[in-house]
Every structure is written in structure tokens, then in C-alpha cells.
UniProtKB/TrEMBL annotation:
PANTHER family: AAA+ ATPASE DOMAIN-CONTAINING PROTEIN, FAMILY ATPASE, PUTATIVE-RELATED
Name this polypeptide is given: ATPase AAA-type core domain-containing protein
Gene3D superfamilies (UniProt xref): P-loop containing nucleotide triphosphate hydrolases
The ATPase AAA-type core domain, residue ranges: 7-81
GO molecular function annotations of the record: ATP binding; ATP hydrolysis activity
Short name of one Pfam family: AAA
Amino acid sequence: GTNPVDLDKVLSKISSFLLLRDAVVLIDEADVFLQERGTADVDRTAMVAVFLRQLEYFQEILFLTTNRVKQFDAAFQSRIHLSLRYGDLLRAEKEQLWRAFLERIGTAGFRLDKSSEQQSQTLSRRNLNGRQIKNIVELSVALAEEGGRGEALTYAHPVRTM
């Protein structure tokens, strides 16, 4: 929900439902709950307060993801038992991602120029994260398919999208 009352009801229902099932919860992009509170946005401040109260009594395992670690509300620090920070990808990891995304395209029936497979090493030199690599590959496929020409995906397609 986008208001504190709805959020409180939803979180209470989720907690009750999970209590009987030994489940794990993932809240992806939990930034709205984790960001530092201020006086400007009263509704968001109230939602953070509701979330903090619910979190205090939450018995199950909860994963929260965010890209805004530096903007955490201080009240969350004592309630989070373990924080994992993922640094930038190593070049070898980026190369693996390029290869994996390109292979996935090949297995989906899309024609892949052999030179583009070999270029994953060159592409991995760019300072990109996994989501950016995935988006570039998807956009590259769209470029290759553009106009119904059905051309094979080449190294030039990802380079054009960057």
C-alpha cells in the first residue's frame, strides 16, 4: 500500500500467514521503508514508522534489497541482523555475465554472430553492473531485430547501445 494504514494491514496479514509456514520473505527495492525519515513527507515518515514497528515483531526471515545504503534510517541499523554489501563486479564476473546473457539469446533461437561471443572479454572492460549488462543485451537484440531484418546479433549492437 501507499498509505500507513494499508501498509500496516498488509504487513500484519503477511506476518500471520507466514507464521504457520516457515517461509522467507523478500522485499525488493525496499528503499521507501529504509530511507532516512524527514519532516517534508509525512506519509512516508508514517510508513517507515509502521514498517519499523512491524519489523520489531517479525519472527520470520526477511530479506530487504536496496541500492541506497547511505540513506538508511538509523532506526533500522539495530533491527538488521546481517547486512551484505556487494561491491563492483570483477572483470571475470562481468565476462561471465556477458557470456551467460549472450548464450541465453542463442538458446532462445536468436542468431548470434560468433564474433560477438568472443567479444565478451572486450565488453567486460566496461564499468557496468549485472542489470546494466542484461539491459544492454536485451536492447541489442531489439536493435538486431529492428525492421524485421532478422540480422544476427554482433559486437556492434551492444557497443551502439552503450
